[in-house]
Input
Amino acid sequence: MRLLIVRHGDPDYINDSLTEKGEREAELLSDRIAKEKIDEVYISPLGRARKTAEACLKKRDPDIKPVTFDWLMEFAPRIKRPDKPERESICWDWMPKDWTKEDVFFDFDKWTSHPVFKEADVEREVKWVYTEFEKFLAEHGYVKEGRYFKAVEPNDKTIVFFCHFGLECVLLSFLLNIPVMLLWHGFIAAPTAVTTIYTEERLQGDAYFRVSSFGDISHLYVADEPPAFSGRFCELFTNENERH
Output
């Protein structure tokens, strides 16, 4: 089985939609998606993901009917991070000097137990996404067995998720047994980036998911469309026009 996780186009967060650039990105992405062998499509209920999916699916076989799942919406618990406890921030917005000193964030089984995350009930949200994703995979023939999967009904379907970067990291965390903090802070998928994951069944009945490409935006490069900055922070502290 192959999973494609697609981040939405450059976001207009205020209106939960796409910017003009995001619409261009989605159109360029649609040319790529039109060439893919796709069996099923699932979408976040948020507008920026829906608009990206709509732009892509208009060039596809109309028999593919997308399904909306609430658990694909952006992962959005709010926390009071250590350096700014007076205001709430998105849960992965930590300063490196703060989160990297916490050993718990490097432990897949314990990373949600940090007091800041406990106060924000992050574990409940993670368990919801993990549980729904686990159920989804089981319904598609792959049952998690400890830290790998039993290929109960193996298949070569291609399934596409149109969703969000923060949520994508939670899905990858479940598949690969990696603490989400390492993914949130160590990777970035630009708007309309495509992550491709395949199952490998080297022993019959036993499977593992393996990422063959993360955050691919080649569809933007071939059109000379620069990637949007959304989700990133300043490359240099002196870059005043980039988010700090």
The chain has a mean pLDDT of 95. The two ends are 39 Å apart (CA to CA). Residues 133 and 143 are 11 Å apart (CA to CA).
